[in-house]
Amino acid sequence: MATHGKNYRKAAERIDRTALYAPATAIRLAKETASTGFDQTVEVAFRLGVDPRKADQMVRGTVSLPNGTGKTARVLVFAVGERAQQALDAGADEVGGDELIEKVAAGYTDFDSAIATPDLMGKVGRLGRVLGPRGLMPNPRTGTVTMDVAKAVGEIKGGRIDFRVDKNGNLHAIIGKASFTVEKLAENYAALFEELQRLKPASSKGRYLIKGTVSTTMGPGVPLDVARTRNLTSEDAA
Questions:
Q1: Are residues 143 and 184 located together in one domain of the fold?
Q2: To which H or E segment does residue 44 belong?
Q3: Does residue 228 lie in a domain region?
Q4: Are 103 and 67 spatial neighbours (Cβ–Cβ below 8 Å)?
Q5: Chain centroid to CA 174: how far?
Q6: Residues 6+ apart with CB under 8 A from 89
Q7: What range does the record give for the signal peptide (predicted)?
Q8: Coil, strand, or helix at residue 38?
Q9: Which of 23, 45, 160, 187 is the most buried (most CB within 10 A)?
Q10: Number of separate domains in the chain
Q11: Distance between CA 160 and CA 192 in Å, rounded?
């Protein structure tokens, strides 16, 4: 059984586990319980009332965080010819066709997002065993299978994140760094939350957002009031 250090336990004592905090308040508490050793990532986790085994209840999407993620994403692009040059000009970290596909097939995954032109998806699709479990497979629904590779690279470098529910109905996403202000993190949270609400499957019955937490990399989870759908950037009462 995992044990936590003294700093973690001390931080956890400041959180009322029976409470449901307004998003901005939860974010402030998460920031306050972050250690100062390094600039920790701030992440939110939701439990969704969906059955991901059913295709029409798979929640997956992208959102551009208004204040970015605090991290410059490494972007790989499967493209050749003119599109490859456009991707490089837009700031892609690695670009290529068959050779790059073979490199990834051998296990290379040192990147945060992958984009592909439609003409290469027949070959890229064979990388499912490497890319699939990591959520890196290009997909038209997330705008990562496209001829406009320059736009896709720019959006990802600018703070767009991809998210998807896992087989147990859990969804994780980063909303920035602990060094961000509460206001900037709350604005990023609001953008993600509103997109999740928009993506609610029509076939999902009962509660859609069951529960949620916000935490830093090494910090305890702070319970979120996921029923709060307005004034998401304010600590005032809903």
A1: no
A2: strand 41-48
A3: no
A4: no
A5: 5
A6: 150
A7: none
A8: coil
A9: 23
A10: 2
A11: 10
What is the pLDDT at residue 13?
Answer: 77
Instruction: Please report, for the domain that includes residue 98, its CATH number.
Output: 3.40.50.790
Q: Please report whether residue 231 resides in a domain.
A: no
Domain with 86, as residue range(s), is: 75-158
Amino acid at 52: P
In Å, how far are 5, 89, 106, 134, 137 from 109, measured between CA atoms? 32, 22, 9, 9, 11
The tens-digit pLDDT sequence of the chain (238 residues) is 455 556 666 667 778 888 999 999 999 999 988 876 789 999 999 999 999 999 899 998 889 999 999 988 999 999 999 999 999 999 999 999 999 999 999 999 999 999 999 999 999 999 999 999 888 999 998 899 999 999 999 999 989 988 989 999 999 999 999 999 999 999 999 999 999 999 999 998 889 999 999 999 988 999 999 998 888 888 765 4
Residue 99 phi, psi (nearest 5): -65, -40
Sequence-distant (≥ 6) Cβ neighbours of residue 3 within 8 angstroms: none
Give me the pLDDT at residue 212, please: 97
Identify whether residues 63 and 82 lie together within a single domain: no
Has residue 112 been placed in a domain? yes
Residues 64 and 172 in one domain: yes
Which residue, of 105, 132, 158, is where some domain finishes?
A: 158
What's the pLDDT score for residue 205?
86
Please check whether residues 64 and 165 belong to one and the same domain: yes
Q: What CATH number has the domain bearing residue 175?
A: 3.30.190.20
The answer to the question of residue 3 being in a domain is no
Residues 95, 79: contact at Cβ < 8 Å? yes
